[in-house]
């Protein structure tokens, strides 16, 4: 299934600028958006989306992050948008606009208040990826009762963006940061779907397979760069290096099998499969890919040694990015809360 393996281009892991320019010139954002059907599902096209997300992660994880967010936003508009929003999305994709989903609240949480008898946005979102690149974002906002309502909002205004708060060691090129919605009026066409739609499964937690697919591309690229380094340095056949690579290959293949299984269960389920188990499997996929990614990173560092820490080495860039990107929210809760569903899937 992996028709586009990391390293097809010979670059393995390239700069974000080069990766992003190639993606835009090649219409990759449009192509990914158009994989989704009018009802928001992928069906058998999950294979093509997984391939593209894996390849993006292998090329540059920051690009993969933007593509995954774009795919997520497109799906949400297809699932819950009205006719006008669907037509807008068609035009946006033809124009190669980039969309995102910004869910994490700032300390001053994004919210809707009534100002002069008009609904008005207040507060901000943090960890908003693609500042300066994303044109429209799907933004979940909690009401006073904690129920989430989706909004489709313009996010191009430079004076609302603050990338300085993204002070981390990797994923710097994801252009993540804080976006202020303070005093933005809620206009016609901005409300997306009904209250509570956002958490509908299998497309809420189940959609984590897309992030895992990007992570998978990154860890496969790290493994291939490690192999290339050892080959070029004449150490590929050393018994200890062979042992390390053997473990790395097992980790990479394990991660790939989990991602393929989760994507298929979420996007193309069989009649005898439950949504509960599919969502749990997707959640556990995220955890397995994290474990596999961390294992491959350690293998790469030990196999390559000090050279892997050189700031100009693509292996160091890929490891730094993946180390940050793997850190998704609340992994312990996922492990505990989904175990019963997993057990039921095994008829236990």
Structural features:
3 domains; four-stranded mixed beta sheet; Butyryl-CoA Dehydrogenase, subunit A, domain 2; Butyryl-CoA Dehydrogenase, subunit A, domain 3; 9 strands; 348 residues; alpha+beta
Summarize the structure.
InterPro entries: Acyl-CoA_Oxase/DH_mid-dom_sf, AcylCo_DH-like_C, AcylCoA_DH/oxidase_NM_dom_sf. With 348 residues, this protein is α+β, with helices and mostly antiparallel strands.
Topology, element by element:
Blueprint: H1 16-25, H2 28-33, H3 46-59, H4 61-80, H5 83-94, E1 99-101, E2 111-115, E3 118-122, E4 124-128, E5 136-142, E6 148-154, E7 161-162, E8 177-180, E9 191-192, H6 208-232, H7 239-267, H8 275-304, H9 314-325, H10 331-337, H11 339-345
Parallel strand pairs: 1-5
Antiparallel strand pairs: 2-3, 4-8, 5-6, 6-9, 7-8
Helix pairs in contact: 3-4, 3-6, 4-6, 6-7, 6-8, 6-9, 7-8, 8-9, 8-11
Overview of the molecule:
The structure is a single chain. With 348 residues, this protein is α+β, with helices and mostly antiparallel strands. The chain has helices at residues 16-25, 28-33, 46-59, 61-80, 83-94, 208-232, 239-267, 275-304, 314-325, 331-337, 339-345; strands spanning 99-101, 111-115, 118-122, 124-128, 136-142, 148-154, 161-162, 177-180, 191-192. The protein folds into 3 domains: 16-97, no CATH class; 100-195, Butyryl-CoA Dehydrogenase, subunit A, domain 2 (Beta Barrel); 205-345, Butyryl-CoA Dehydrogenase, subunit A, domain 3. It is built from 11 helices and 9 strands. A 4-stranded mixed β-sheet has the order 1-5-6-9, covered by helices on one side. A 3-stranded antiparallel β-sheet has the order 4-8-7, with no helix packed on it. Strand 2 (111-115) and strand 3 form a beta hairpin. Helix 6 (208-232) runs parallel beside helix 8 (275-304). The model is unreliable at 1-11 (pLDDT under 50). This is Acyl-CoA dehydrogenase. It comes from Fulvimarina manganoxydans. InterPro entries: Acyl-CoA_Oxase/DH_mid-dom_sf, AcylCo_DH-like_C, AcylCoA_DH/oxidase_NM_dom_sf. GO terms for molecular function: oxidoreductase activity, acting on the CH-CH group of donors.
């Amino acid at each position: 299934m992996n028709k586009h393996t990391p390293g097809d281009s010979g670059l393995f892991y390239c700069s974000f600028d080069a990766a992003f320019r190639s993606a835009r010139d090649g219409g990759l954002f449009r192509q990914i958006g158009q994989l989704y059907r009018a009802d928001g599902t992928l069906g058998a096209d999950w294979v093509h989306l997984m391939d593209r997300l894996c390849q993006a992660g292998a090329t540059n994880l920051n690009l993969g992050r933007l593509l995954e967010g774009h795919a997520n936003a497109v799906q949400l508009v297809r699932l819950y948008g009205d006719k006008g929003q669907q037509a807008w999305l068609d035009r946006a994709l033809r124009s190669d606009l980039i969309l995102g989903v910004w869910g994490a609240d700032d300390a001053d949480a994004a919210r809707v208040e009534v100002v002069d008898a008009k609904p008005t946005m207040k507060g901000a979102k943090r960890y908003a990826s693609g500042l300066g690149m994303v044109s429209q974002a799907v933004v979940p906002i909690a009401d006073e009762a904690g129920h989430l309502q989706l909004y489709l909002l313009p996010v191009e205004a430079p004076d609302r963006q603050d990338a300085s708060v993204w002070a981390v060691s990797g994923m710097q090129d994801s252009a993540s940061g804080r976006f202020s919605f303070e005093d933005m009026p809620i206009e016609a066409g901005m409300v997306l779907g009904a209250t509570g739609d956002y958490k509908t499964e299998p497309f809420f937690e189940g959609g984590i397979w897309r992030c895992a697919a990007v992570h998978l591309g990154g860890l496969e690229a790290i493994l291939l760069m490690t192999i290339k380094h050892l080959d070029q340095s004449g150490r590929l056949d050393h018994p200890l290096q062979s042992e390390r690579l053997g473990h790395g290959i097992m980790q990479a293949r394990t991660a790939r099998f989990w991602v393929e299984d989760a994507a298929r269960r979420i996007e193309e389920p069989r009649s005898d499969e439950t949504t509960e188990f599919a969502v749990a499997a997707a959640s556990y996929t995220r955890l397995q890919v994290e474990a596999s990614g961390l294992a491959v990173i350690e293998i790469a560092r030990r196999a390559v040694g000090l050279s892997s820490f050189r700031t100009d080495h693509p292996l160091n860039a890929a490891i730094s990015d993946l180390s940050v990107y793997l850190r998704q929210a609340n992994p312990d809760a996922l492990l505990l809360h989904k175990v019963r569903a997993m057990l039921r899937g095994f008829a236990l």
